[in-house]
Amino acid sequence: MKFPFFASFIVFCLWLLYEIKKNRNAQEKSNEMFWQREAEANSTRRKPLDDLDYIRIPFDLLPMELLKEDPVIAEYHNTLCELSKSPIVNFTGISNTDLKLMYGAPNITLLSRYDQSYTILVRTLQNWAQALYEKGYMDEACRILEFAVETHTDITATYKLLSTIYHQMGKPEKIASLIPVAESLNTSLSGHIVSILKETET
């Protein structure tokens, strides 16, 4: 009885060693490929940035006059005004290595700044819309959230609040228009957001 058990144990150990070695080799190969791409990216020359999908804040379509004396709302307005002075680009899901390969290593600091501005933008839009919604300004909050979705934000709360508003407006069919946007997001949150929207459709 002991021999079959011992033989099985040896087979298991050999299999385990094989898997460990295979995983180690795969990791080493992955690391090697990463550093090769990083070296290539770091040697990529500066390229024009004319084709970037720059985001313009549509102040004429946003409720900038509403509650502008409120200190919290005024802070959101000020943030948006400051952001509008510099380029804003959504690079969600794109690594610095890929950015350097696409636009050149010398541009990476600039591109990172554009992306940071985008992150601040969509967070500000979400907070602003939430504040207006809680104060009873549903239509205005809806306009803000719809602009955020147009920029392909991946903030889950934005899609949840907008779908809630569509229901309260008696327009649940509009939730369906958000699903293709969520599906196209270059982020791991895409599937989660799609699931939430499909649940709120009914």
Keywords:
single chain, 202 residues, mainly alpha, 8 helices, flat
Q: How confident is the prediction overall: mean pLDDT?
A: 88
Low-confidence parts, pLDDT < 50 over ≥5 residues? none
* Number of β-strand runs: 0
Q: Terminal Cα separation, in Å?
A: 61 Å
Helix content: 55-70%
What is the oligomer described by this structure?
A: single chain
What would you call the structural class?
mainly alpha
Q: Determine Rg (CA atoms, Å).
A: 24 Å
The proportion of strand residues reads: under 5%
What does this structure look like?
With 202 residues, the chain is an all-alpha fold. It has 8 helices and no strands. It has helices at 2-42, 71-83, 96-103, 108-134, 138-150, 156-168, 178-183, 190-200. It is flat, with a radius of gyration of 24 Å. The model has no long low-confidence stretch (mean pLDDT 88).
Short description:
With 202 residues, the chain is an all-alpha fold. The chain is built from 8 helices and no strands.
List the helices and strands and how they pair.
Blueprint: H1 2-42, H2 71-83, H3 96-103, H4 108-134, H5 138-150, H6 156-168, H7 178-183, H8 190-200
